[in-house]
Automatic annotation (TrEMBL):
Family from the record: Belongs to the CarA family.
UniProt organism field: Oceanobacillus bengalensis
Annotated catalytic residues: 244 (nucleophile), 329, 331
Biological-process GO terms, alphabetical: 'de novo' pyrimidine nucleobase biosynthetic process; 'de novo' UMP biosynthetic process; glutamine metabolic process; L-arginine biosynthetic process
Gene expressing this chain: carA
UniProt pathway annotation: Pyrimidine metabolism; UMP biosynthesis via de novo pathway; (S)-dihydroorotate from bicarbonate: step 1/3; Amino-acid biosynthesis; L-arginine biosynthesis; carbamoyl phosphate from bicarbonate: step 1/1
Entry-linked HAMAP family: CPSase_S_chain (MF_01209)
Domain of life of the source: Bacteria
Keywords: Amino-acid biosynthesis, Arginine biosynthesis, ATP-binding, Glutamine amidotransferase, Ligase, Nucleotide-binding, Pyrimidine biosynthesis
Record-given protein name: Carbamoyl phosphate synthase small chain
């Protein structure tokens, strides 16, 4: 196997064995603590531009299948693995993880001491890294600035797409949506029209949606200030659900603020409390930015969910409009269907209030 190096901008080096495509790569190095779901993680567009480290030590054992990709292909820039399994066993598996990486031109490193790497990322908070074939000091002198708008542009659809023929028409504004969100809507008897992230309010309104879903997506929400007036107008006119980036954008649209977290929430076991009922749910998460609690427009919104570990904002609900958003992923099943009821709630609002404008834009 070819040796490869992961060099962090903070100077630390990790040596491993090259897997996947033999191209050098740069990106923010993040980690996910889930024990399973590597295929879903790699193909989640919210990871665009990032080098994803798997905390779980054995990755690839159940292979890769034809049904679980969250988007058109691998979204991460590269993967970092401790022990990669190249002889998968699962009835649905159609290829191995390393062959999938190769076929989609994505590099990775295996046999990396991921525990030490994660401890290093946690120590620094945020850190970029480069995967290199040879240690070349010249290559680690300069670091690219991340352009979040370009990340969203690269994953959003360019033209409208339509799925299903259910009773409720939901427009999904695509900042890099996960297919599980589309599936969850189709399961709720929806017809879904997916529109590019920068579609204007009037175009969306002319589709006569019963409800609107603002999707997840990569990068810093502050790069998307141009779409905030549209998002605000949508929330004032249609039942709206925001997920992850969509949640952050709704908060920003009402004058709230977001900030970068030290090393994000990425995993399948983040406990989240519903502040109305006191009930705690185990959620799947993937975000590096978070809403600043004090900045939320309290005249219009109440905080609906809170992270049990660090008390960060996990959701908001409008005080009188059918608008809510969550920082976690209700479409991702940390258990059988834990928070999927959020889609049911949304559709309930669509049924009672959809198809009508109830406030002037
Ligand atoms: N999954 C997402 O939508 C992530 C939102 C945003 N890019 C963040 O990292 O916080």
């Amino acid at each position: 196997m070819t040796k490869g190096y992961l060099i962090l901008e903070t100077g630390e080096e990790f040596i491993g064995d090259w897997i996947g495509s033999e191209i050098e790569m740069e990106g923010e190095v993040v980690f996910n603590t889930s024990m399973t779901g590597y295929q879903e993680m790699m193909t989640d567009p919210s990871y665009k531009g990032q080098i994803l480290t798997f905390c779980y030590p054995i990755i690839g054992s159940y292979g890769v299948n034809d049904v679980d990709d969250e988007s058109k292909g691998i979204a991460v820039s590269a993967v970092v693995i401790s022990d990669v399994c190249d002889e998968p066993s699962h009835y649905q598996s159609t290829t191995s993880l390393t062959d999938k990486l190769k076929s989609e031109n994505i590099p990775g490193l295996a046999n990396i001491d991921t525990r030490s790497l994660v401890a290093t990322i946690r120590k620094h908070g945020n850190v970029s890294g480069k995967i290199l074939k040879v240690k070349d000091a010249r290559k680690t002198k300069q670091w690219k600035e991340k352009n979040s708008l370009e990340l969203v542009q690269s994953v959003s659809v360019n033209e409208q797409e339509s799925y299903g023929d259910g009773h409720h028409h939901v427009v999904l504004v695509d900042f890099g949506y996960k297919k599980s969100i589309l599936k969850a809507l189709l399961n709720q008897d929806c017809k879904v029209t997916i529109v590019p992230y920068n579609t204007e309010f009037e175009t969306i309104a002319s589709l006569h949606p019963d409800g609107v879903l603002i999707s997840n997506g990569p990068g810093d929400p502050l790069a998307l200030t141009a779409v905030l007036p549209t998002i605000k107008a949508l929330t004032k006119n249609f039942p709206t659900l925001g997920i992850c980036l969509g949640h952050q954008l709704i908060v920003l649209a009402y004058g709230g603020k977001t900030e970068k977290m030290p090393f994000g929430h990425r995993g399948g076991n983040h406990p989240v409390k519903d502040l109305a009922t006191g009930k705690v749910y185990i959620t799947a998460q993937n975000h590096g930015y978070v809403v600043i609690a004090d900045s939320v427009d309290k005249e219009n919104f109440q905080i609906s969910f809170q992270n049990v570990n660090d008390k960060t904002v996990e959701g908001i609900k409008h005080v009188h409009l059918p608008v809510q958003s969550v920082q976690f992923h209700p479409e991702a099943h940390s258990g059988p269907s834990d928070t999927e009821y959020i889609f049911k709630d949304f559709i309930q609002q669509v049924v009672t209030l959809g198809g009508r404008r109830y406030v002037k834009a």
